[in-house]
Design goal:
65 residues; three-stranded antiparallel β-sheet
């Protein structure tokens, strides 16, 4: 079973982005979970956000760089 909350390094690997872009994606997705001093990212929230981005791209909506 994969952990639901992942650190930044795991998020980078999971989404295939560098440190800054992965952290930005996590913030934009609303996936940041603070636990004590740790900053973690909710994998399920990331998945839903990416699915939403894909749907918006398929319909030609959204703002993409």
């Amino acid at each position: 079973m994969q952990p639901r909350l992942i650190g930044l390094k795991a998020l980078q690997s999971y989404v295939g982005l560098g440190e800054k872009n992965a952290a930005q994606l996590g913030r934009e997705a609303g996936a940041v979970v603070r636990y004590g001093a740790r900053i973690l990212y909710d994998r399920e929230t990331i998945d839903r956000y990416i699915d939403t981005l894909k749907e918006e791209q398929a319909h030609g909506t959204g703002n993409y760089a």
